[in-house]
Amino acid sequence: MTINVLFSARDALWPVYQPLLSDGLSAAGLDVRLGRDFAPDDVDYVVYAPNSALQDFAPYTRLKAVLSLWAGVEQIAGNATLTVPLARMVDHGLTQGMTEWVVGHVLRYHLGMDAHIVNPEHAWTPVAPPLAQQRHVTILGLGALGQAAARTLADLGFQVSGWSRTARDLPGVTCHHGDAGLQDALARAEILVLLLPDTPATENILNETSLGWLPKGAHLINPGRGPLIDDESLLAALDADHIAHATLDVFRTEPLPQEHPYWAHPKVTVTPHIASETRPETAAQVICENIRRGESGEPLLHLVNRALGY
Ligand code: NDP
Prior knowledge:
With 310 residues, the protein is of the alpha/beta class.
């Protein structure tokens, strides 16, 4: 029987994904119709961007699964009309892109690059930076992205700690977990990276109290999600010199409104949600593999725990 796969994402992505999915599904030996416009009760799978127009899944009575093109699924995890399995994106290209972005921004802080890139006084201050072995980096979130970044930073020689909901065991990384482990994870963080999902349990995880657990002069990098940070508390910690500098890629409102204090703050670098993105070539393989699994009765990859929200 023919399987109908609805592509529900930005128009510009359709010509990119269409041939990749078509080739991948044919190679899997599946008889598939791939399109942007089906009667809802004909659709078997939805390839989905959470910002697409499709938000009411109730008419999709034949639906077997929704396959997100995004890693972060906070916009759909709580959708009550969605009653079939939801898989999120774990894509090699997305992971590599995030690792490169995180390592780049960690090295900016570690090496103190700004002092030489912006040096209007032409100051000659020949102080060599310490080695990575003398620098402690903490990553909140040890999932697909956090683990990859932690591994690469540990390979570079950094002292790396991580924090997750459940216990993790990663070579070269000091792992903490659960509410009780957060203070220890933050206590030595000279550079802190947020790679947590946005869930009810992680909202404002970085607040006045937890910011206070960081050592004075810590640097913050947030490529996770905006709501992880209580913005007022971060601005206060920056102004009090408790946090030396923050690089923020994600925000509660995106694009970040022009009047937001982060734009003009001398200790904040704003990047426009570009830390990493799903790469069609590798992501299409993940989607095709999940449809193949769905059709052969195998468990889907990267299923979202809807109760936990990630
Ligand atoms: P995963 O689901 O693989 O990992 C999430 C990690 O967070 C896990 O280690 C999990 O713990 C931990 N976690 C979740 N809830 C809690 C909690 N309450 N307390 C402590 N730890 C918790 O996600 P990914 O690594 O794939 O992605 C992380 C996030 O990165 C995405 O959700 C998205 O928001 C963001 N992202 C941002 C992009 C950008 O361009 N800025 C691009 C792509 C993703 P455990 O291991 O125990 O499950």
